[in-house]
Amino acid sequence: MKTLDTMNASPDCIFCKIVAGQIPSRKVHEDDEILAFHDINPWAPVHFLIIPKAHIVSMAHVGPEHQGLMGRMLTLAPQLALAQGAKPYPDGGFRILTNTGKEGGQEVHHLHFHVMGGPRPWLRG
Ligand code: 5GP
Ligand code: ZN
């Protein structure tokens, strides 16, 4: 259940600005709760981010009320990875990564799942 509070954007958040269309992005999926767009600095031939439109700071901020949303975000990953050019499992595949907090390497503090795939070598990861 979406509430006004969880749909609130954070004014200084770059991903909230992407959701609002104030910063352009190359979208790969959009629905009422979720946006996916290409990472501006890709590590792999396929590299996009899946984010909730609501400003959830990180995986450390996810609670039982987010179970449905988290399921929908993860369920999108395989179909979007294939649509973006990742080869099918098992010879192809993809990587899903979520950095959380300072020691987890998180730089943008709006929850996002990195989805990476495509032929190796990759720049990172
Ligand atoms: P983190 O280090 O927080 O897990 O990853 C943040 C990711 O967001 C990085 O891979 C970075 O390239 C990407 N990123 C940062 N700013 C922008 C932006 O303005 N547009 C897009 N498309 N990606 C961004
Ligand atoms: Zn945000």
Approximate shape: globular
Based on helices, strands and strand pairing, what is the structural class?
alpha+beta
Distance between the termini: 35 Å
How many strand units? 5
Rg for CA atoms: 14 Å
Can you list the strand order of the major beta sheet? 1-2-3-5-4
H-E order: HHEEEHEE
Largest sheet: 5 strands, antiparallel
What's the helix count?
A: 3
Strand content: 15-25%
Mean pLDDT: 94
Question: Fraction of residues in helices?
Answer: 10-25%
The molecules bound to the chains, other than polymers, are: guanosine-5'-monophosphate, zinc ion
Q: pLDDT under 50 segments (min length 5)?
A: 1-6
Description:
- The termini are far apart.
- With about 120 residues, the protein is an alpha+beta fold.
- A five-stranded antiparallel sheet has the order 1-2-3-5-4, covered by helices on one side.
- The chain contains three helices and five strands; from the N terminus they run ααβββαββ.
- Strand 2 and strand 3 (about 45-50) form a beta hairpin.
- The chain binds guanosine-5'-monophosphate and zinc ion (ZN).
- Guanosine-5'-monophosphate binds near residues 14, 38, 39, 41 and 106.
What does this entry show, briefly?
The protein contains three helices and five strands; from the N terminus they run ααβββαββ. By secondary structure, the protein is α+β, with helices and mostly antiparallel strands. It has a five-stranded antiparallel β-sheet with strand order 1-2-3-5-4, with helices on one face.
